[in-house]
Automatic annotation (TrEMBL):
Pfam families: TBP (PF00352). The keyword DNA-binding applies. Gene3D superfamilies: TATA-Binding Protein (3.30.310.10). GO terms for molecular function: DNA binding. One of its GO terms (biological process) is DNA-templated transcription initiation. Keywords: DNA-binding, Transcription. The keyword Acetylation does not apply. InterPro entries: TBP, TBP_dom_sf. This is TATA-box-binding protein.
């Protein structure tokens, strides 16, 4: 029972933290993943026999396959390696990999089997419900930050655990990349929230 109680407390704290992030409107915008079909693919044959496939070896050495459901794009290489982009949910990745496997098997590559599915990067966005003093954040967390406003308006905040990078704008908008799981995205925002709140940009105007 003690374990159950401890787990219940952890879950309650997690839900409380997620509720506090509701105003951030966190959304996953892109998942990049890789997998391997474990056999070589004749891309010229692929583009002739499969639908929604583009292949121009003079421009790029991979064949581009577009999927409607779930909406995604896969880039297939002759080695059998595949890169998937444009996904919004982790669960969609398995479906896309199975679709690609099914298509290439049907057109003659019967040994194809989607293996070693790995998420390489997740990009997400969010927005703090307040503006942020980027100069103050840079001074207070110099070890983790870099900021060159003359080159780019966002401050880069590099989180070590979970490992990812946040781009923080003075407006409060946040873009995160480098995460490996959606759970990491939430954990990263949970850790970033009190930091941004500490450097909240307050309106100094006086009402007359």
């Amino acid at each position: 029972m003690e374990v159950d109680t401890e787990d219940d407390l952890k879950q309650a704290f997690k839900e409380q933290a997620r509720e506090a992030l509701r105003d951030y409107k966190i959304a996953v915008v892109n998942i990049v993943a890789t997998f391997d079909l474990t056999t070589k693919i004749d891309l010229k044959d692929l583009v002739l026999k499969a639908r929604n496939v583009e292949y121009n070896p003079r421009r790029f050495h991979g064949a581009v396959m577009r999927h409607r459901e779930p909406k995604a794009t896969t880039i297939i290489f002759a080695s059998g390696k595949v890169v998937a982009v444009g996904l919004k949910e982790e669960a969609e990745l398995e479906r896309v990999a199975q679709k690609v496997e099914s298509i290439v098997r049907k057109i003659g590559f019967e040994e194809a089997a989607a293996r070693w599915i790995t998420i390489q990067n997740i990009t997400a966005t969010g927005s703090a419900p307040h503006k942020v003093r980027l100069e103050g954040l840079l001074q207070g967390h110099a070890r983790f930050c870099s900021f060159e406003p003359e080159l780019f308006p966002a401050l880069y905040y590099r989180m070590l655990e979970p490992k990812m990078c946040f781009m923080v704008f003075v407006s409060g908008k946040v873009v995160v990349c480098g995460a490996k799981t959606i759970e990491d995205i939430w954990e990263g925002f949970e850790k970033l929230q009190p930091v941004l709140l500490q450097f909240k940009l307050r309106d100094r105007r006086i009402d007359i």
